[in-house]
Design brief:
Layout (H helix, E strand, L loop, with lengths): L2 H14 L8 E2 L2 H8 L3 H13 L3 E4 L3 E4 L19 E2 L10 H12 L2 H8 L9 H11 L11 E4 L2 H12 L5 E5 L4 H10 L2 E5 L1 E2 L2 E2 L1 H10 L4 E4 L13 H14 L3 E4 L13 H4 L4 E6 L11 E4 L5 H10 L6 H12 L2 H23 L4 E3 L6 E5 L6 H12 L1 E2 L1 E2 L13 E5 L5 H17 L2
Parallel strand pairs: 4-16, 6-7, 6-10, 10-11, 11-12
Antiparallel strand pairs: 1-3, 2-3, 5-13, 8-9, 12-13, 14-15, 15-18, 17-18
Amino acid sequence: MEEYRRIADRVEAAVRDGRLRPGDRLPPQRVFARRHGIANSTAIRVYGELARRGLVVGEVGRGTFVRAAPPLPGPALAEATGAAPVDLQLNYPAADGQSELMARALAALARPDVLTEAVSRPAAAGGTPEAREAAAAVLARPGWAPDPDGVLFAGNARQAIAAALSALVPPGGRLGVEALTYPLVKAVAERLGIRLVPLALDEEGVRPEALEAAHRAAPLAAVYLQPTLHNPLSVTAGEGRRAALAELLRRLDLTAVEDTTWAFLVPDAPAPLAAHAPERVLLVDSLSKRLAPGLTVGYLVAPARLRTAAADALRSGAWTAGGLALAASTRWTGDGTVAEAVAAKRADTGVRHALLLRRLAGHTLRTSPHAYYCWWELPAPWRAETFTAAAAARAGVAVTPGSAFAVGRGTAPDAIRLGLASPPVAVLDEALNRLAAVAAEGP
């Protein structure tokens, strides 16, 4: 790897993690060369490479400045035309033939009488009796089935999470979360004025003693948990851990928001936390991953004591499901579309998991055969932000640094999350191969 490209990677990492901000002026090239112990000619090549990546702009007589909105660089793996890179950040699984399956229900909705009913007025937070029954059937699993009367509908899982947190945690309140958590929860908490309290993890997720200690230090208003296929670590809590957490929720008089968005991928997953403490858990799920994010609904299963507060939060936040999406989802759950898509995606995770293990053999990975994501603990001397920049620049692959998931002020882990769901299998295979090459080259 040529020296100028290594140095350009480090500067790019500084831009992307905020150490260098839009509008910051880089030192003159001679000064840059002296600081980095390189020749002036190498510094010139570094600045040229940064400009080629769209990270800086030079102004005659003024200097070189970080651009206001640097684009993500690198060619796509599928074609060397300068298109967007392969995206292993977003994670949208799609099964073969999924669109054809979904089209059956949409064709039925095209009847004027059905369409009029679906779009003539906003859907209520509680949907319709038919929608609640269909949702309860989709969410049911061995050892647990929700009360249809407790099912509320949001536009998607993100909105369901926002409504649950809004109903449970006042502005300035403390929310316990996994020390590594779903990044959207961090964003929602910031908008709602909620303070996040990181809870230590082990191989089954949140440790009960960590939750109790955090609550004893200063009372928590609620806790957000992902007991099945935790994102990003892919760990799943066993029945014993779930029972211990349920007992702790009762003893501490706490309520949990349980996110089961990815749990459908595990055919033999333990019953949710909601089965152990139904009066203490708001369960969140959606059809986004089972089917598609473009036309979906989110589910919020609320115990009787919280149902009104949760419904009010959905309405006040304008987070209720759209009428057309609710009608379509009800048909998809009833005609077997959801079941077929789920079966196909469970098989697909196995294929992608096998690719991952083959391409990144010998690396420290935390994942599951059922997961559409992987937590990759990078080999020394790589840092997560530097690797993220190098992956984009050298391999044309966008990945997510560990800092996106970390809660609190501790040191962000030198790890990245790989989203395995979105690219076609052949493109994913090549992307993983190129990431392995970048890791071997070093920073």
